[in-house]
Amino acid sequence: MADVNRGNRPLSxxxxxxxxxxxxxxxxxxxxxxxxxxVAALMIVWWLLAASTGPEYFAFANGFVTSWFGDxxxxxxxxxxxxxSLAGIRHLIWDNAKMLEIDKAEMxxxxxxxxxxxxxxxxxxxxx
Length: 128
Fold this sequence. Notes:
76% of the residues lie in helices and 0% in strands. With 128 residues, it is mainly α.
């Protein structure tokens, strides 16, 4: 028999019902950093292509990449690379059915967040 009240109920709980959780936010941020790394990679490819094109065009591209905005993009890309890598390791741990309990999953989330920040600062200090 057809459910006559089906049109009056939501099909599934919506964002207003759920409280954002650390694991869901870090998972969303993993997808965002993956896409942001594509943009940074395109900037690096543009810089390399400019280097092979000629000195005038390379000077323009190099001026952009080494400007304060280019430095900011590269710094955030370095952080995104570390974050995305550590989040990938976290997912490999979960794929092996380890640390799936809520407290341990949140601990892994904080480890990814803190670890990516520490590794970014360490990389900048070492590479500078």
